[in-house]
Specification:
159 residues; globular
């Protein structure tokens, strides 16, 4: 059983896959929801402080390098411009928007992307982490319920 929890932890740390993949793995291995969610949440949130505090610095550093400068500059400027548009639309509901973005159980909408966006927007770390944790928990529960056949995402997504 320890091996299964290790894989849940490891899978949940991976970008794009995150807790969604870990919960799917847990459901195929008959791991109960609560322990799987706790282990997956820990794994998914482990990289968050590093992404928040170092992503912008790495992008700025990389934007000044000859081989990688263009792509790093692209991500930096694109992230900042998209973030400013989101800030303008969301206004005071920016953290609710962050929660909803992370809670959508699709690749690219998890904790990694959400906390990267909050870093680029210079949002408050504590509020960003709270919104991200709530979103990760919501996404994990949605995926678990879908994997268990309790809800059907295909019809909800137009399939």
């Amino acid at each position: 059983m320890t091996k299964k929890y290790f894989w849940i932890f490891f899978i949940s740390m991976l970008p794009l896959i995150e807790i969604r993949g870990a919960v799917l793995y847990a459901s195929t291995q008959s791991v109960p929801l609560l322990p799987a969610m706790l282990v997956g949440l820990l794994g998914n949130m482990l990289p968050v402080p590093f992404i928040f505090y170092f992503a912008r610095k790495v992008l700025v550093w990389g934007s000044q390098k000859p081989l990688i400068g263009k792509i790093f500059t692209f991500f930096l400027t694109r992230g900042e411009s998209a973030g400013k548009k989101l800030q303008a639309k969301a206004g005071r509901g920016l953290y609710v928007a962050l929660f909803l973005f992370v809670a959508i159980p699709l690749p690219g909408t998890g904790a990694w992307t959400g906390i990267l966006a909050s870093s680029l927007l210079d949002m408050d770390f504590k509020k960003s982490v709270i919104a991200t944790v709530a979103g990760v928990i919501s996404a994990g529960i949605i995926v678990y319920l879908a994997a268990a056949g309790i809800i059907h995402l295909g019809s909800a997504l137009g399939g």
